[in-house]
């Protein structure tokens, strides 16, 4: 079906102007902001406030400290990764919240950035990519692990880049 | 049908220019330069909010909870609209087709997938769904094997649509990140290729000793 629409667009004689294209894209950006980012930010801020007031944040943070040090992150950073698992936007929003609370530094937020995008929205995209592209069922469990491994690697890689550039502060 | 229009399409100088400007703009190379070239940088053009008082923008200081979260989300709208507008324009000028010309010959050494998947490959930079549909079609048209598809999907699945999603879903971290957004996208791309190659390695080992294949899948 997508092929038909793609060919249909190619056949159209009248191409939208650059201005029209920009407006279309900017509108898309506005809707992403309204439909994904704003709800994710509200959720993330409320959740972090809840974890803070209940003291769960400090507790869980302490327990996970040794694991997260490998990536140059405090234990509390795990909340960003857990949120990212459900939605990329929620993960990034949580990381931003942790930064605004002073729990993580800007450099640590930068380490979380590519990781949240890499391992984000795993279930949703499983349907949209793995199921749609019709990959053989026997590789499904293997494919789920790939973004998680990639995310771990990208955190180490980003940390290395930051320390090479002297931005690790 | 998609294949036919793919053959006919010719990459124009506009496509190349759009691709080059997009890469320069997101890479942040001109961000700290004095003079007119700064006008090409994405962060510079995104600009700044005005200050309500000394060092404080309209979101205020000391807010908490849902209200503060909403105020922060408001600050991200200009970046999102500007970024996706630029990407849309670059796409319409043929920047993706230009990128396809660059990537097509190296797809085989990079991930072991055929050059015919070039259009799906470059589409996956900005869209999760288009590439997945194309991949299905490539296998159905016998232009890609079952194993190549698994490797290709491993690439697409991790960090899907990295260009759109780094701006879109990552909007909250854009103003905080100490690295230019182009570098972040580059890092995501590197691990995507790495992950795909791990799957490639795993699959080729598996077909090497097919007798004991199933047990290793975990």
From TrEMBL, chain A:
InterPro entries cross-referenced by the UniProt entry: Gate_dom (IPR011642), SpmB (IPR052549)
Pfam families: Gate
Keywords: Membrane, Transmembrane, Transmembrane helix
Transmembrane parts of this sequence: 37-57, 77-99, 111-133, 139-162
Domain Nucleoside transporter/FeoB GTPase Gate positions: 37-130
UniProt GO cellular component terms: plasma membrane
NCBIfam families, alphabetized: PRK10519.1 (NF007811)
Name by which UniProt lists this protein: Inner membrane protein YjiG
The species this protein was found in: Sporomusa termitida
From TrEMBL, chain B:
Record carries keyword Membrane: yes
Domain of life: Bacteria
InterPro entries, alphabetized: Gate_dom
Keyword annotations of the record: Membrane, Transmembrane, Transmembrane helix
Keyword presence, Oxidoreductase: no
Membrane spanning residue stretches: 70-90, 110-134, 172-195
Residues covered by the Nucleoside transporter/FeoB GTPase Gate domain: 74-138
Stated name of the protein: Nucleoside transporter/FeoB GTPase Gate domain-containing protein
